[in-house]
Amino acid sequence: MQPTPGIDASNYVSSFNLAFYFIVAVSLLFMIGLTVLMLYFVFKYNRKKNARAVQIDGDLRLEILWTVVPTLLALLMFYFGWSGWKPMTKAPDDAMVVTSVARMWSFSFAYENGKTSQDLVVPVNKPVKINLVALDVIHSLFIPEFRIKSDMVPGRETMMWFLPQREGQYDLYCAEYCGLQHSYMSSTVKVLSEEDYLAWYTDTTAVTTVAEGSAPGSEGFAILKARGCNACHTSDGSKLIGPSYLNLFGEQQIVIRDGKEVPVMVDEEYIKKAIYDPNSEITKGYPKGLMQSYTGIVSEEEIEKIIEYLKSLNEQ
After folding, report:
1. 34/51: higher pLDDT
2. 266: how many CB neighbours lie within 10 A of its CB?
3. Structural domains of the chain, ranges and CATH numbers in brackets
């Protein structure tokens, strides 16, 4: 679905563009003007024409001019910036509420009916308020086409809001460096018609579905991908931030528990504990504290599908 041409993507685009173009125009004006003036003086007062230096007294009118004009231009820039920023601080009372959860290295979005998605799905011409939650480090939710960006700070409640004004798909990025896989932390904003959004919103089937006849474990892989797990774990045995899924289930691992090395068997209980309480036991050779608990995010039914996927990797 391509964005509709001729309409701003969000309510902030015009005010942001006005401030941006004004600042660029003033900057170019001063850069060109000062450069031309400098070259003029270089040629007019060069050594050949002025072998003896002459002291030039100040000019009060000139002093006032180059003080007042930049001050007025700076105040005008401030006005454009303020008038564009002030409406962002308070969302309309009728705005729909979405909670965005950021963790290394993925976004997830939770809606008022309990539905969750990896992409942000919103209806056109309906104000959207996003509560911003970071579970580990500072992230920043950035939608370039909408001209909005806001930091997501652990332990601090923040929000952003916007009015999507045209249907289409738009890039969504993390704009704050948050670790090794920061560049992979991206998603999509899908702006749908009101009818299409209501159909999506009221569809209570699982977010992750698998076509009939697909390979065993595919649902588990889709869940891992949707939750951003593949940013730290691989399926081919290569090493990233965490252990690979390949030949993991049913194998013995050495973990660090209470500062001691302990052998454990990777079974159903181990996988469940690794997802809900990941820092109680850390696989030897891997860093502690990077993975946060997925309690309330990954259900026990989804864990069963993840385990099915891990088992399928042992059969390859």
Report:
1. 34
2. 20
3. 13-89 (no CATH), 96-201 (2.60.40.420), 218-314 (1.10.760.10)
Residue 147 burial by Cβ neighbours in a 10 Å radius (0-12, 13-18, 19+) = buried
Partners of 103 in beta bridges: 106
Signed CA dihedral, 290, 295, 298, 304: sign only: positive
**On the CB side of 204, how many CA atoms lie within 13 Å of its CA?**
3
Q: Which amino acid is at 135?
A: L
Confidence class of residue 172 from pLDDT cuts 50, 70 and 90? very high
Phi, psi of 26 (to 5 degrees): -65, -40
Token pair for 290: 């990077």
CB 167 within 8 A of CB 4: yes
Q: What is the mean pLDDT of residues 7-26?
A: 90
In tens, the pLDDT along 259-280 reads: 888 888 888 888 888 888 888 8
